[in-house]
Design a protein that fits this description.
Helix content is about 50%, strand content about 15%. With about 280 residues, the protein is α/β, with parallel strands linked by helices. α4 packs parallel to α5 and α7 packs across α10. The longest helix has 25 residues.
Amino acid sequence: MLSKDKKILIVGLGLMGGSYADALTKAGYEVGAITRSQSSIDNALSRGLIRHGMADVDAGYVGQFDIVVFSLYPHTFISWIERYQQFLKPGAMLTDVTGVKGSVVYKVQSILRPDVEFIGAHPMAGKETSGVQNASGDIFKGANYIVTPTPENKESAIEDCEELGRIIGCTRISRLTPEHHDEMIGFLSQLTHCIAVSLMNCKDSKDLVRFTGDSFRDLTRIANINDEMWSELFIMNKKELLKQMELFAGQFEKLKKAVECENVDELRNMMRISTKRRNYFNH
């Protein structure tokens, strides 16, 4: 268990950063935050998500913390490390929540001081809403949590990062290489967002709202999307995402041809495979 004496800093107080703060504060840790918006700091303070916070990056403030969780867009995270890493406490452990790892983890580790350590992590949780005003530690309860260590990381630091996931409420902790993470996320998260976005771009849904059922609502829930963040994630994971899009396109074309040719056997076979594989998620 991570000592309650360790002070934890959240950099970037949006939905994910605020939810980390909420979960860690409720677990008994002293949590501070740095974010650009003073109103976000004020909101988090008023709700008790953090004990203190700042809207500026201050060397004396940053240097207090033993653990730093970065909840920033990937390019902003890298820029922060380049600009402010000298403020970090010697021996500090850094982690993140970014949804792409191959283009982030190695870059950060290559420019980071040798007396601090960065271990990538990705809690598989979120909401369709954004901002600290919608933050809640409850989003992590029972969620999956992926840690992406490299040979640069010490086993003790990796275990601390995994423990952080348990503390916020995640129950299934996995270790993946940054490359394997990006392959899995390309399929499980980014491709599904691509499908939802494509569906909503097919037809103007204003009038369709009167007719739709739960299936369309469920399938397009994630189409309410942060375009700035997700476009960056798509491009940064371009190679893997394109592979997954091609995989999906091949199966969709197969299904289309089965309908076109009235090949009931093929349709039913694909549906049986679909049902079997979807049932894995029910256990």
